[in-house]
């Protein structure tokens, strides 16, 4: 589940304006992934396109979802029944009825080879078989994910938002980053950004937008921090972060609770459904590439004895949530 959208850290509320500047500024360099908020400018007007990529962590069985083989031998074909879709001749399994109803809006690829498959997302997210797990500290061989490529060469669709956002509970296993493109094009960690842009007590947008006052605050902080590259990056990223806060764009975008109950029910009150709804809000607001993972490994269904269960015990109960989220 996503953190409550209106939650603010109690410490953030208590520490006051000066320490809030420090906390958010250092977050820009470290834990929040805020460098991803400042990538490559803004896409030209009239060209706003976006991608929402759903990463079904663990690797779902295509035979039991979009690629049923009802005429295959019993030891190969799915235990699930096959249903017709809105496209004559195209069939899904019985647990995807909502997607089956909009199959005319989908393109189903049934000829993907992943010879470099492993328990990491590198190869598929970089779309390059040379980008793979190496177990020698050089995973990916520098190849960037598609989200980072979009961040570099396209940028965000809105200047107050990042180009590339990841919505995943496990960063290492579910999201691949920028590789040799560098820190600037890493994905922003969306689940950590949720709720972080509310104003602390006593801070208002007019006060925050006072550039002279901001400079004074940072001057006071410099004595407590190293004066190297980290300080320089903090100042630039934090300055841009505060401009976003003043505009209110980020805070409004991440406020899923502002959606109606009917809309939240339509996507599903579960991990992947809530992330899907947030992803829609992000791309509508101006994020270019959003990467969604409901939970780490929840499609790792290679036997009933594994954590997530097999086809009947694990995949079957997960399919309705995925069907609803993707349909919505």
The strand order across the widest sheet is 1-6-4-5
The percentage helix is 25-40%
How many individual helices? 14
| Average residue-wise pLDDT | 77
Radius of gyration: 22 Å
Largest sheet: 4 strands, parallel
- The best one-word shape is globular
Strand content: 5-15%
Could you give the order of the helices and strands?
A: HHEEEHHHEHEHHHHHHHEH
Query: Between the first and last Cα atoms, what is the distance in angstroms?
Result: 18 Å
Q: Unreliable stretches, pLDDT < 50, 5 or more residues?
A: 1-35
Derived from helix and strand composition plus strand pairing, the structural class reads: alpha/beta
Descriptive key words:
single chain, alpha/beta, 6% strand
Secondary structure topology:
Elements: H1 10-14, H2 16-29, E1 51-54, E2 82-84, E3 91-93, H3 97-101, H4 122-126, H5 146-153, E4 164-167, H6 171-174, E5 188-189, H7 190-193, H8 205-208, H9 211-222, H10 229-247, H11 249-253, H12 261-267, H13 271-285, E6 289-292, H14 311-327
Parallel strand pairs: 1-6, 4-5, 4-6
Antiparallel strand pairs: 2-3
Helix pairs in contact: 2-10, 13-14
Tell me about this structure:
There is one protein chain. With 328 residues, the chain is of the alpha/beta class. It is built from 14 helices and 6 strands. Helices cover 38% and strands 6% of the residues. Helix 2 packs across helix 10 and helix 13 (271-285) packs parallel to helix 14 (311-327).
């Amino acid at each position: 589940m996503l953190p409550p959208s209106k939650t603010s850290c109690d410490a953030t509320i208590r520490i006051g304006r000066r320490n809030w500047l420090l906390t958010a500024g250092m977050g820009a360099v470290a834990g929040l992934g805020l460098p991803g908020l400042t990538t490559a400018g803004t896409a030209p007007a009239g060209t706003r396109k976006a991608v929402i990529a759903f990463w079904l962590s663990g690797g779902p069985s295509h035979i039991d979802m979009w690629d049923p083989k009802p005429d295959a031998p019993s030891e190969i074909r799915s235990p699930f029944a096959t249903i017709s879709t809105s496209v004559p001749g195209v069939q899904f399994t019985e647990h995807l009825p909502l997607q089956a109803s909009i199959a005319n809006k989908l393109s189903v690829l049934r000829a993907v080879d992943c010879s470099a498959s492993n328990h990491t997302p590198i190869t598929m997210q970089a779309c390059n078989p040379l980008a793979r797990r190496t177990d020698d500290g050089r995973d990916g061989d520098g190849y960037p994910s598609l989200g980072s490529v979009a961040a570099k060469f396209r940028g965000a669709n809105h200047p107050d938002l990042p180009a590339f956002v990841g919505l995943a509970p496990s960063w290492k296993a579910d999201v691949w980053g920028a590789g040799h493109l560098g820190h600037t094009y890493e994905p922003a960690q969306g689940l950590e950004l949720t709720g972080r842009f509310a104003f602390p007590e006593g801070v208002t947008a007019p006060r925050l937008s006072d550039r002279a006052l901001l400079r004074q605050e940072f001057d006071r902080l410099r004595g407590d921090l190293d004066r190297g590259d980290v300080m320089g990056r903090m100042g630039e990223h934090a300055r841009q972060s505060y401009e976003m806060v003043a505009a209110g764009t980020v805070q409004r975008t991440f406020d899923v609770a502002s959606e109606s109950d009917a809309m939240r029910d339509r996507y599903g009150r579960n991990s992947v459904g809530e992330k899907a709804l947030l992803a829609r809000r992000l791309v509508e607001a101006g994020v270019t590439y959003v990467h969604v993972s409901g939970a780490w490994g929840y499609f790792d269904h290679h036997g009933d004895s594994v954590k997530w269960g097999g086809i009947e015990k694990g995949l079957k109960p997960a399919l309705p949530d995925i069907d609803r989220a993707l349909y919505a």
